[in-house]
Amino acid sequence: MLSLREFLRELSIDSYKLGEFIRDPRGSMETGELEDQGRRVLASGSASLMWNHLLGRATDAADPVERVVETDRRGTLTVIGTGIRTVGQLTLESLAWIRESDAVYYLVADPIAEEVIKHLQPEGAISLMKHYGEGTYRGDAYEGMIQEILASVRSGKKTCAAFYGHPGVFAFPSHESVRRARSEGYTARMLPAISAEDCLYADLGIDPAINGCQSYEATDFVLYDRQVDSTSQLILWQVGVVGDRAYRSTSYQVGGVFPLLIARLSQFYGAEHVATIYEAAVLPGLPPSIR
Fold first, then answer.
1. Which active-site residues does the annotation give?
2. What is the pLDDT of residues 212-271, one digit of tens each?
3. The pairing of beta strand 278-279 with beta strand 289-290
4. Which of 102, 107, 150, 113 is nearest to 129 (CA)?
């Protein structure tokens, strides 16, 4: 029989075993030969009970209520991220949810992510890219994605929505899908993933704990007169699409707004201050773009 530590170790390194636990927690604990006390502790849903057990502390709860093994027969929504670079950045938990869901809707930035999703879910994988059209207002495209995701949840399916990067960073349809699903009484969750900001800290050697760090979307920064502490680090997102609210498959129309962005930055830093334009590496073996 496995101890709880050993059982959780196996879930941490094997996405197939984690998938089995997601699909059938009780059956997974049985086939995984988890010892009886470990089953009761894991089934309790109590963080304090689990910590005490894992650290070898005595507990007085011999038979806690089995909450973790309850199964929601209604539709559910799990939102995941594929990371900025799919190879090496797609978590075991995300892999397990892609594999175990009835339907997977995805919006990804590279062909590798699409290949992985289709491989793990050959029949239930559906691209959301069709909601984009040349010159289409991005808000309209997002609403179409949200409606398609929620239709799956309402039909009773265990639904997974996969977005590139971190699904909660600059990803309105993911947040809104979770919010609406919860407001309708469905179980909805978002799992963390690696964002462009995580890659930036590693590639540029920046620690947000040193002098602090401010973060603004570039168009928002220009339009709403955001203030800057010039002794702190500043991250401006999406400077390549500043001022353009439409989707375009090639170049964005930023010529009218970009000079305003430079003027705003010059107010705080002066015209000679050096800034870095950064793009994280999307494909394996390629370096990030740092200018």
1. 138, 142, 164
2. 999 999 999 988 989 899 999 999 999 888 877 667 666 666 667 888 899 999 999 999
3. antiparallel
4. 107
Q: Is 20 helix (H, G, I), strand (E, B) or coil?
A: helix
CA distance 161 to 135: 24
Angle in degrees, 0-180, between the axes of helices 172-183 and 138-154, rounded to the nearest 10: 40
Cα–Cα distance, 211 to 103 (Å, whole number): 44
d(CA 5, CA 142) in angstroms, rounded, equals: 42
The token pair at 245 is 């609210």
Whole-number Cα distances in Å, 173 to 63, 75, 98, 179, 198: 41, 18, 18, 10, 21
Residue type at 66 in one-letter notation:
E
Compute the distance between CA of residue 143 and CA of residue 102 in angstroms, rounded to an integer.
22
14-59 pLDDT per residue, tens: 999 999 999 999 999 999 999 999 999 998 888 999 999 899 887 6
Element (H, E) at 27: helix 25-31
Which residues is 158 bridged to in the sheet?
A: 76
SS3 state at 120:
helix
**What is the rounded distance in angstroms from the CA atom of residue 23 to the CA atom of residue 107?**
24
Q: What is the pTM of this model?
A: 0.88
Question: CA nearest 66: which of 34, 49, 42, 84?
Answer: 42
What tens digit of pLDDT does each residue of 171-218 get?
Answer: 999 999 999 999 999 999 999 999 999 999 999 999 999 999 999 999
Cα separation, 86 vs 280, whole angstroms: 12
**DSSP-assigned letters across all residues of 182-214:** HHTT-EEEE-----HHHHHHHHHT--TTSS-EE
| Cα distances (angstroms) measured from residue 275 to each of 15, 211, 233, 250 | 41, 17, 11, 25
Q: What whole-number distance in Å separates Cα of residue 98 and Cα of residue 92?
A: 10
